[in-house]
Amino acid sequence: MIDTQIAVIHGGNMDEDIIDHAAQLIRDGKLVAFPTETVYGLGANALDAKAVGGIFEAKGRPADNPLIVHIGSKGQFDRLTDGVKDIAQRLMDAFWPGPLTLVVRKSPLVPDIITAGLDTVALRMPRHDIALALINRAGVPIAAPSANISGSPSPTTARHVAKDLSGRVHLILDGGPCKVGVESTVLDITGERPVILRPGGITVEMLESVVGRVKVDPGVIRPVQGRPVRSPGMKYRHYSPRARMAVVEGGLKDIVDKITDLTRGYISQGKKVGILATQQTYGQYRDFDNVISLGDREHPDTIAESLYSALRRMDEEGVDIILAEGVAREGVGLAIMNRMDRAAAFNIIRV
Ligand code: AMP
Ligand code: MG
To answer: Which fold has domain 244-350?
Structure first.
């Protein structure tokens, strides 16, 4: 057991000392959890294979699921990849710092444990002052997957991190809740045409405005069992609450009717039901307890922001079944539905 410290970053002078301390821990091969604009990351020195091994151990992460390396400046990109392509430059100029991860050919500097033996590496420059200060003060790139136990919903607050990883991480930097709320878009640019391996805060439309057509890997939308995967993370159970979950997709009125029917049915069987609604529908579930509005359908980024904390709240309430309203699979909605599908183990009800 490690004695986990939690340090709150307030935005004042004292913060320098905390960041210095955190950076020293990273250089010493220790684990530090820190906020990014997407979710909290569990960080270690990316150039230290032993420290990186600690990440896999702390999370219980399968060894064949590679990690994203976070960098503090665009200049660090060149050292970690072999040969910068024009397309990488255009994407970095447009979206970095930000929630876009680029999969590129790796340089020999990147330890194999990070890439799970692949000859590519995933790189990202986060848009978050604390993350950037930590990486730059440490003076090394930082490997960081989401700071949760593998399989559970990703953490968007320091409290979520502490719940999962207390005793397994040396320091948690508390920078408040994450703004984007879902993980970065992962874009493979090693082939002819860029391929989205995981949808996220940077949408298909945004990418296409910079690089022309991008492909969405089929694994983004469907389960990948029995097929080879381009991104190992696709094949694992993910983002899952303890409760069983179903996503209801279709016209809005039909969704509400279906969830209402299902909820009545489950309650009559003595089950405790949680409903993930939206601002537009929240009032229609007045008869039920445990209803959370994820956000505004007109602004799906508000739904992305609150999704994981809502899943965690449902588990804290001890519900048996979560019924979630689907959203349109476009823009950020593609990322939201990708996470909901997996949280529900592809238990999708179309109405
Ligand atoms: P997480 O660390 O939880 O944000 O997950 C990182 C995601 O990026 C996982 O889905 C990984 O499979 C994916 N990933 C990381 N490195 C690579 C790579 N070299 N090639 C393809 N996918 C990758
Ligand atoms: Mg993760």
So the answer is: Rossmann fold (3.40.50)
